[in-house]
């Protein structure tokens, strides 16, 4: 059912539900298909047996031809899935004169209506209506008038054809609903992986910038006292370990999940607003001059996590592009209004290693803020500072996902 890129699945599902196999292609029957085929065979055989008593006044050669063609047409019902159009055309043409082929022709018409689109089944239906004319004129029964027999035959054709169209429409609806459900599930997984990728980008960027900062300090201060060198080496080891742990996590999450996987969220606890002091203290230990003004508390976990990531990325950018400059982080907000953060640092930087950056972090922060229903701005001010500011809505009542 599922081929490379999902293409085989998208073709196989309507083929299974609608039976739209290629003409002459071998069809693999399920248990349900076997039951339906047996019922159709018994139906065609029953209609054929009902017509046998009507042959008593026919010539013996014609009776023999009727019986042989009737038996062959009933046996041909087992080929209706493989050659539905060909079987319908043959039985419809034979039923224009032979009476015992009528049961198989009815089954063939139903099969074409179910397994083929109207542009194919419609002409077969029209051929069946045309074949009624020679049958009514040449094989009319004595107890029914010609108009009544034509009306009866036409009613049977329309009823069988309409039944097949309804069955096909229902199968198309089922296929459409399944397709929508499958697409929705794939979209949900993709969005979840993208969300986790954004989370990991922020985490890994922070860890790797810390590594680069301490490594740069060792490079430019090879004559530093042994305790400072030991502290920098310990920080490198710790951040390298955490970075590897985060990298293993993102690889495991972004790897193709098994079909029965219901949750792609990492098992590790996610940071919240209460973890901001820890983040600031970690940056201070790395040599940054950071001041935190936290005037908000009890924010929902989802809201706090978004603000934490924004501050984390802003500090990473300040460490990259304004090394040694003091940084001020101000967080304010209240329930029912909004939660805001402002990260400021001078544009000047002390001499040292300037870490490379492609600007993807600020783009990611803008996307994060917009997905949370807020906004973000960044840029230089006339006072010679670079500011990253974000405003996130803080509703009075939080949803379960926010809490």
TrEMBL record:
<keyword id="KW-0812">Transmembrane</keyword>
<keyword id="KW-0418">Kinase</keyword>
<protein>
    <recommendedName>
        <fullName>histidine kinase</fullName>
        <ecNumber>2.7.13.3</ecNumber>
    </recommendedName>
</protein>
<dbReference type="InterPro" id="IPR050482">
    <property type="entry name" value="Sensor_HK_TwoCompSys"/>
</dbReference>
<dbReference type="GO" id="GO:0016020">
    <property type="term" value="C:membrane"/>
</dbReference>
<keyword id="KW-0808">Transferase</keyword>
<dbReference type="GO" id="GO:0005524">
    <property type="term" value="F:ATP binding"/>
</dbReference>
<feature type="transmembrane region" description="Helical">
    <location>
        <begin position="120"/>
        <end position="138"/>
    </location>
</feature>
<dbReference type="InterPro" id="IPR003594">
    <property type="entry name" value="HATPase_dom"/>
</dbReference>
<dbReference type="GO" id="GO:0046983">
    <property type="term" value="F:protein dimerization activity"/>
</dbReference>
<dbReference type="InterPro" id="IPR011712">
    <property type="entry name" value="Sig_transdc_His_kin_sub3_dim/P"/>
</dbReference>
<dbReference type="Pfam" id="PF07730">
    <property type="entry name" value="HisKA_3"/>
</dbReference>
<feature type="transmembrane region" description="Helical">
    <location>
        <begin position="150"/>
        <end position="169"/>
    </location>
</feature>
<keyword id="KW-0597">Phosphoprotein</keyword>
<feature type="domain" description="Signal transduction histidine kinase subgroup 3 dimerisation and phosphoacceptor">
    <location>
        <begin position="192"/>
        <end position="257"/>
    </location>
</feature>
<feature type="transmembrane region" description="Helical">
    <location>
        <begin position="34"/>
        <end position="52"/>
    </location>
</feature>
<keyword id="KW-0067">ATP-binding</keyword>
<dbReference type="Pfam" id="PF02518">
    <property type="entry name" value="HATPase_c"/>
</dbReference>
<keyword id="KW-0472">Membrane</keyword>
<keyword id="KW-1133">Transmembrane helix</keyword>
<dbReference type="GO" id="GO:0000155">
    <property type="term" value="F:phosphorelay sensor kinase activity"/>
</dbReference>
<dbReference type="InterPro" id="IPR036890">
    <property type="entry name" value="HATPase_C_sf"/>
</dbReference>
<feature type="transmembrane region" description="Helical">
    <location>
        <begin position="87"/>
        <end position="113"/>
    </location>
</feature>
<feature type="domain" description="Histidine kinase/HSP90-like ATPase">
    <location>
        <begin position="305"/>
        <end position="393"/>
    </location>
</feature>
<keyword id="KW-0547">Nucleotide-binding</keyword>
<keyword id="KW-0902">Two-component regulatory system</keyword>
